[in-house]
Structure formats: C-alpha cells, structure tokens
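Homework-ish question, so no full write-ups if that breaks the rules, but can someone show me the predicted structure for this set?
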Amino acid sequence: MSDAMLALPWALLGPEAIVLLTALVLLAAAWVLPPAVQRRALYPAAFAGLFVAAGVTLLLFPAKGDLAGVFIVDGFALVVKLLLLAGTGLVLFLAADERDPAWRDGESDALGLMLIALVGAMVMASAADVALLFVAVETLSIASYALVGLKKRSVASLEAALKYVLTGAAATAFFAFGAAFLVGLTGATDFATLAERLADPRMAPYRPFVYLGFFALFGALTFKISSPPFYLWTPDVYQGAATAVTGFLAVVSKAAGLAAAVRLTAGVFYRLPGEEGFGVGATVALVAALSMLIGNAVALWQSDAKRLLAYSSITHAGYLLVPLAAATPMAVEQILYYLVAYLFMTLGAFALVEAVARDRGTYDVRAFAGLYHRSPGAAVGLFILMLSFAGIPLTAGFFGKWYILLGALGGGRLGLAAIFIVATVISYAYYFSLVWQAFMRPGPTERPLRLAAGPAIVFYVGVFGTLAGALFFGPLLGAMRLAF
Amino acid sequence: MFESAYGAAALGAIFGGPAVAFGFLLVAGRRLGALAGGVATLGALVSAAGALWAAGMFLRSGEVLATPVFLWLAPAGGGITFGLQAGGLGLWMAVLVGLVAFFVHLYSLGYMKGDPRQAVYFQHLSFFTAAMQGLVLSGNLLQFYVFWELVGLASFLLIGFDVHRPAARRAAMKAFLVTRFGDIGLFIALWIVYVHVGSFRFDDLFRAVETGALSPPLLTALSLLLFLGAMGKSGQFPLHVWLPDAMEGPTPVSALIHAATMVAAGVYLVAVMEPVFSASPVAQAVVAGVGAWTALYAAVVAVAQTDMKRVLAYSTVSQLGFMMHALGVGSVYAALFHLSTHAFFKALLFLGAGAVYHAAGTYDLTRLGGLGRKMPFTTAAFAVGALALVGLPPLSGFFSKERILAASWTAGSGGAGILLGTTLITALYVGRLLTLAFFSPARTPTPAPLPPLPATMAIAVAALALFAAFAGGLESERFGAFARMIGEPPPSEAPAFFAALSTALGLFGLLLGATWVRRRLAAIGRTEAAADGASFGGFSRAVRAGFGVDALIVRGIGGGAMAVGRALAAVDRGLFEGIVALVVAVVRGLGFFASRLADGRVQRYNLIAVLILLFFLVVWAVSG
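A: Not a homework solution, just the prediction itself:
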C-alpha cells in the first residue's frame, strides 16, 4: 500500500507544494521577523515563491500525467496554473500599495492567505475527483473569506466578508448536495469512474437524480465563477474588499472556477449519452445567457466604479461560459485565450480605479473626470482597456470575443451567439461612460495624477498585454496548442 | 543565405527609413521645429539608398527579395500576413518613389522654411513616403489595400494642409470622396479574390489565373473592379475631378503625390495585375479606351487653364491616360517607362512652378510673364521639363512616348491616332504655358532683383532636370537594367515615321501655342489679355471648366446623393430611432429590476440562488 503510494508521481504536485511552502513561510514570518524587516522581506519572498512555482509548472509541460487519476496534470491544467500564478503576481503588486492600517498590520497574514487561496485554485484546475475538488474549492473559498474581511476596521469590508461567507456556505451546501447524489448513485468519486458509471444504460431510470446532481454541482461552481445562480455576492464583495483582493477574486478565483467547471462538465456530464430535452449544454447556455444579460443590464445603472467592474465581471463569466455551452473542440482554447485577455484588462482596470479613487477620495465614476488632462497616458491606457472590455478591434478582448463567437456559431448555438452580440453592444454604453468621463468631462483639478509604482506596473502591463495579445494572437494560440 | 538577409535589410530600409522618421516626428516633431525637415529628408534618403541597393541585388541575382513574413491570423486556409517583398517591378517603383521623394523633401526644406507648422508638414510627408513604399513592397492584396488607403489618407492630410483656407479643406474632402468611390471597386475585388482563390497573396492569385481556376466573366469583373480603384487614384475620366482641385496643397506635395507617385499607384496596380488583365480582353479594351479618352480630354481642358498648377494638373491626368492606354494595349514596359520619365519631368515642372511662386507670389498665368529674363536658371530647368513633356528628342519624354505610340500602333487600335492628336494638343498647352509665364512681357511688375532661390530648392530642381533630360538612357543597352527590372522586353519598334511625325507635331504645337499667345497679347492689349489669359473667350470658359464634367459630378451626383440622404435621414428619425428608443427602454428596465435584486440582503441572495436552481429543475422536468 505504501509502496504504491510512494510510486505515485508526486512531482506533479510540485507547483502547489512550492506555493504552499511559500505561504507557510510567509505566515511564519509574522512570528519570526521584526515588523520593520517583514515589510521588506515579504514581497520578494512571495514573488520568489511564485517564480519558482511558475518555473516548475513550465518544467512539467513535457511530463504530463496524473496522480492516481484524481489530480490530472495536462496541458489545460498547466496553462491555467500559469495564468493563476501570473494573476497572483500582478495582484501582489497591487497589494503592496494597500494603505489600510489593518491590512498593513496583518500583511504577512494577507500574503499567506492569498497564497493558500492560490494553492486551492491551482488544485481546482487539476482536480478530477469530487472529494478533491470539494477540498480545493473550500481551501480557496475560506482563504478568500478571510482576505475579504482583512480590513478589520472597515465596516464595508466586514460586511462584504460576511455576505461572502454566507453565500459561500450556501454554495458549499449545494455542492455537497449534488455530490451526494452522484457519489451515491455510482459509488465512486473520481470523474472518470463517474462518467463511466453514469453513462451505463442501467442508470437510465435514475436520470432525474443525475441532472439534479449536475444542477447542484454546477450551480455551486457558479459561486466561484460569478454567474447566476450564485452571482449576487459579487457587487457587494468586490466593493467592500481591498482592491487587491477584488482583483484576486475577479481573476484567480474566477479562472479556477471556470477550470473546474470545464473539467467537471466536459469530463463527466458531456459524456452522458443522449441529451433529453433540457440537457447539460442547454443549462450552461442558459446560465451564460442570464449572466451576460443581467450583468450588462444592471451595470448600466452603476455609478460606483468597483460595482461597475463587478457587474462587468459577471458578464464576462457569461462570455467565458459560451464556449463551454457550444462544446466545440476549440472551446478550451477559446476560454484560455479569453482568460488571458481578461486577466490583463481586469487587473489593469482595477489598478487604475484604485489609483483614481485614492486620489479623489471616491470610487464614483465621476472621479475619472478630466483624467486626460491630468494624465494623458493613463487616459489613453484606460481607453485601450475599455476597448478590450467592449470587444472592439485591435485589442485582445476583441480577438477573444471574436474567437468565442466563431465557436458559438460553429457549435450551433445560434441563439446564444445572438445574445452574446446583443450583450456586447449593451456593454459599450457603460464602458464608454468611463472613457467619456476621462476625455470629455472637465475635472475639478488639473493636478497630474501619479500612480504609485505597484499600480503603475499592473496598469501598464495590463494595457500592453491587451495590445500584445491582439498583435500576437496567432503565435499565442500556437503556443497554447503546443501545450496540448 | 547572406543574400536574403541583405535583401530583407534593404527592404526594411526602404520602408523603415521614412516610417521611423514619421514615428520620430510624431512624438518629438513639435520640439524639433526646423530640424524636423532634416529628419524627414534623412528618412527619404535612407529609403532611396535602400531602394538602389535592393535594385542592385535584384539585378545581380534575379530573385525576389523578401522580409520574413509576420503571420497575424491563420484561419484554416490562407492567412493574413504582413511582410515586405518585391521583384523587379516593385523595386523599380521603390527606386523611383525614393528618389523623387528625396528631392521633394530637399526642396521642401527651402519651400517651407519659416512656416510655423512645418514639423507637421514633414510628419505628413514622411507618413506618405512610408505608406507609398509599403504599397509597392506589398506581396498580398490586403496589405496593398491597407497601404493604398494610408496613401489616400496622407494625400488628404497634405492637400488640406493649409487648414485655415476653406478651399484647401474642400479640395481635400473632394479628393477623399472621389478616390473613395474608386476604392470601393478595389475593396470588392479584394473579397472576390479571397473568396475564389482563398488567399490574398499575389502569387496565389496569379497561379489561379494561370490554371484557369477563375472563369472568364469573373476575371473580367475582377479586372474592371481593380481598374475602378486605379481610376480613382490615377485620375482617369470621370474620376479625375479631384486632381485639379488638389493643387490647393503645397506645391512640393503636388509634385510628389499628385504627379509622380500616388497617382502612379493606380498605374502600378494595373501593371502588377497584368496576369489578371491580360486574361480579359474586354477589360483591356476598357482600360485602353478610357486611357486614350482621358489623355485627349484632359489635354484639351489644359489648354484653357489660367492657373499654372491647374495646367500641370490636367497635364498629369492626360499623361496618366497615356500610361493607362499603354497598359490596355498590353505593354507594361511602355507604361512604366513613361511613368518613370513623367515622374521626373512632371515633378520638375511642379517644383519649377513653386520656384516661380517663390519669386513672383502667384500662379496666375494672366498675371505672370517676363520671368524668362529674370530667373534664367528656373526658366531653363522648367523648359527642360516642358520639352520632355512634349516629347522632343533627345529628352526622356520622347523615348517613353515613342514606346507607347509603338505599342498602341502594334495593337492596331485607333488609339495611336488619338494619342498623336493629344501630342499636338499637349504641345499647344505647353507652348501657351511657357510663353505666358516666361516668354512674354510681364503683366504684373515683380520686384527686381527677385528673391534668390534657396539652395535646397535649386539643387532639387537641377537634379530632376538632369533626370528629365537623360532618363531616356534607361533604355540603352548600357543601362539596360530597366527591361530586366520590369521583366518585359520593350514593345516592337514603331514605323520610323512615327518618331518624326510626333516630333514634328510637337514642334508645330509649341510654335502654334507660343505664337498664338503672343498675337493675342499684342492684339488685345495688356489689360484685357490680363483678364482673359489669352484664350478663346466664351468657349474657353467652358473648356476651362472641363466641359462641365466637374460641375456635373459635383452638383448632379452630389446633389442626387444629398436628396437620397435626406430621405433616408427622415426614415432614420422616424422608424429607427423609435426602435432604438424602445430597445434602450427595455434594457434599462431589465437592468433596473435586476438591480433591485442586489439590495444587500444576503438572505435574499441565497434565496434567489435556490429559486434559480428550482427554475432549472422545473424547466428540465417540463421539457424532459
């Protein structure tokens, strides 16, 4: 028994192990190092850990495999992990700039928690077992709850954390509920066996329970993805949390949720024979459609920049689910490319929002007024990011959307494609309200806006990434295909 | 191995020189002030040098030069690529564009001196040069089209450079709209090619034509659409109306863009697409016919013009007609040869006109005169260009025109006759122009002594005069490079009497024009002639206005378009705006109600989540 365990390719857990180790070191730093040294040592240590983990991830590319069939390391998982690592790295730059005293007091906690959350996220990308997935989701979630509430003296932050916990608890309940049915029906927890046994013709009379299990499980994952049914926490939590944490949730958490949803849906439920009536693909399509429509429609009414971006994030969850609904062979590529584009534009946007809000004292969109006169570079960068969000050509966002649209049409989901286009058009209005504020409205001051080093890095990386993603669309896709 | 690397480097220099200059000026232009011109001229010099180097390489190896290709999008099948490549034809054009651009840049240093916006001017000029070089170095239609549009944009910016003058702005807009109309043809042709050939690359298109993959009607349609685009850019009748008005731009711009290079882009397009055109006799006949007619028509209109630049503008249209006709009868050699010589002598003529303006302050022929004695250098240079235009031996224009006449004669159409007649009329307007501007008593007193010509302007004029005079040598065996670069042998020689006949007609026309002008001036007296510009009175007004074609196009088609536009606007207001308002209301309503869901009560959030899930179940149960 122990020989068999030792014979497993534990090296596949390398990246997660390194991140976890870094997290533990960061947490221990609070006890070991004096406060003055802490600040200077924490961030480099965290970055070092991320770099090493990324390096190991790259090394794993040629040697794929799985750990007892429950932890799969394939091209998809590796690309997602790189994405998660990159996202966390950029978020760290934002976190370094966080001024809240409660945050600063517990900075090693914050970084440690973030990395633990990252471990959960990375495992989610590889998890091919219901139990492992549950543990990973909970790891990510619980660490995220704590991160949201870290600004202990901010009522908004605490409120956001509480809402997050309560919604998350409901989602966990759904997860357990759905899992119970599936595991109960088949007696197995790993996806491969589940798929095999659920596809068995003898399972036919229990089909309603299978679908119940699917709805519940997928629904639970929508909590992480920020799409209906579990989407209502997004605006409040994004608004209340520190912007660095918001960025983490918007990118890392969402990407992990999507990865898990893809693996679950594609690995188990799309294998079920014959879709009767309202099937798996249709459910995903419905979720995507609701996400796109509701997200956009409500975003039109938002006057707070962070809430606006939160609803935008809900919408993008919808866009990202479209390839999953269309289920073409290119679906995974489409999701991955769009996630890359999304990473750049979202983190860039949050960096600028935070900088502007800090300068003007409010997160209202009107704080952007006159940005062009204060900092033309930032205004132009904002313009590029908004173009990408709206999916207008010459940005990575456009190519991502175009590619997804092709997939939707190719997969026969014409109604969904139509909704996709409609939603995109609706989104122009609120994305350009920011641009309009920045270029067309006079601000109360002409004082130049200087971004601090951290946010500046994230912002400009976001802008250039958006442009580079468009310019190198072909090569980037080629590189991704190599992974598979 | 090294060959290809050097080739790529040369191509990079051709495009990159002016492109880098443009980028530099875009960012730092305003701070540079007077130095901006130097940067731009340097860029043009690099371009010309690179072109000469590349041409040398091509002549030695005979192989197409190419840079690495950047694959941008690769859907299944053909991809969208960007890269520079050129064979002999493209490289020849690059040399031509590079040289003329360099001299015009040099000239502009003197011409634009003291202008507060000269940094912007040179920025636009660099932009144009880069775009034009990119155009001739394109190996696929999409990239060609992109540069074609950019060249048009540069032309728009430069024609309307004097933003404070309404006439300049109007002229820029007119140029843009008329060429846009032609560009539609090119755009449609682009898509036809992609749909039927599966790729934008020239090589793939030519192979498809060769293997007969495209049906004859399709080839004809494609050729005609391509020609429509060429008509716009090269000012063929009736899309010529923008060229005379484009003279509102600064004179160096007229020399570079509206005489030598941009307007030549249409000729270049038809030349490059020769495999396509030669597969469609119908299209070739159209090209030949339009070319001949344009040549004649524009020459007649040029006779009555009172503005020096407008004479040259109509002359350009006419000469482009010659080139198109040559292409129509199947001789790329003759067309390109004339394109080259025309580039030199027409640019020279424009730059000379600019020198006249620099001295006398006007282009108005009714007010000029007596400059022959006052500015001998300019007069001599101008005369060289003028006589080259008429086509008198041994100047370059003679050789190139002979080739066109020979090709036309061999093809047997009536075109040769029309062209000979046009030669006579060309000589007529040239004679008139020379006499009115230089060889007649001054009608307006000019300051004496005249302000000296800046060195940069003089050098450029002198250099172009040398080219205009001696470019005929391109044909000779010693410089036999031209035929090898074009990739085509010269057309068979015309009957010997042709050369003599056209020369005689040229001389006769010159003398006729000159004498008749002098007689009129002497007979009528100074004041009336000043108003009349020595022409036919009422009839001349009609001729000057291009027989109303311009007015017809502007008022007729323009007016018609406005009427349709007004009708559509009414529909738009009533119907479509109503629909839009409805949609907006629906979306905002949906948003309002959905936003009420997120009221902050987390209990409600979870309840909604459960309800949505129940909804899924219900839908599933009902549809299952």
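Now go work out the reasoning yourself. Hint: Chain A touches chain B through 39 residues (CB under 8 Å).
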